Amino acid sequence: MRILYLLLVVLFVVVQGVAGQSYFSSPAHACRFRRGSCFFGRCRRPYHQIGSCGGGSSCCIRRRWA
């Protein structure tokens, strides 16, 4: 019975550690999730910037004309 309490504590510590992790491991993954592409420097036509990919890259998405 004592090991059950120990396992419960270990499980609680693991869950606490996972809760602190962000969903996206890098800005590039976040850009792809938003349907964007990473380009070095500034975005060129027909793209516009929606964020940053880090390292001097911009997260760009194709402009949609209504």
From TrEMBL:
Q: Which InterPro entries match?
A: Defensin_beta-like
Q: Which Pfam families match?
A: Defensin_beta
Task: Write one Gene Ontology MF term.
Answer: CCR6 chemokine receptor binding
Q: Which interval of the chain is the signal sequence? A: 1-20
Q: What is its main location?
A: secreted
| Subcellular location, record wording | Secreted
Q: Which UniProt keywords apply?
A: Antibiotic, Antimicrobial, Defensin, Disulfide bond, Secreted, Signal
- On whether Signal is a keyword of this UniProt record, the answer is yes
GO terms under biological process: cell chemotaxis; defense response to bacterium
Identify the domain of life.
Answer: Eukaryota
Q: Which residues form the Beta-defensin-like domain?
A: 29-60
**Family matches, as Gene3D superfamilies:** Antimicrobial Peptide, Beta-defensin 2, Chain A
Q: Which family does it belong to?
A: Belongs to the beta-defensin family.
What the entry lists under PANTHER family is as follows: BETA-DEFENSIN, GALLINACIN-1-RELATED
Query: What name does the UniProt record give this protein?
Result: Avian beta-defensin 101-1
